[in-house]
Amino acid sequence: MRRLPAMPEFLAPLPLCAVALMAVNDRWLKPTFHNALTGKLSDVAICFFLPLYVSALLALVTRWPRARRVAVGAGFTVCLFTALKVSQPAADLFCALLRPLGAPLGLSRFQAWADPTDLVTLPLVWAAVHYSRATSRQQPSTPASTPTGVTA
Prior knowledge:
Layout: H1 13-33, H2 36-61, H3 66-86, H4 88-102, H5 123-137
């Protein structure tokens, strides 16, 4: 049986919190408050987690190193997000493509509005790339071995 590859760039607390933020914002905060902050929260979350998610998906089908996968995820995110935010026909097409994918999960309402002001959240793509680089440099910490009875 083939083992799934590790996907630490996405399966970590910060990216998963971004996914949770988007879900909470889209499900409860936007309908309740519908203001400028709730309008941008999901964009912040998407720009952070989508490059990492695309990288994790690429880990399933390629043997690329994480840096390459994240770079491709970042490029994909910038292109897709920009197209959706500057073109309403692109946003409508994207929602139409998502509907069949969401139907088995009970998700039927996909809405997106082109809003070029949302492009201010694109620096979060860079933050995701930086986050991935920083976490890939971290080595698992192992306690230093000290002789019994000796304290450092």
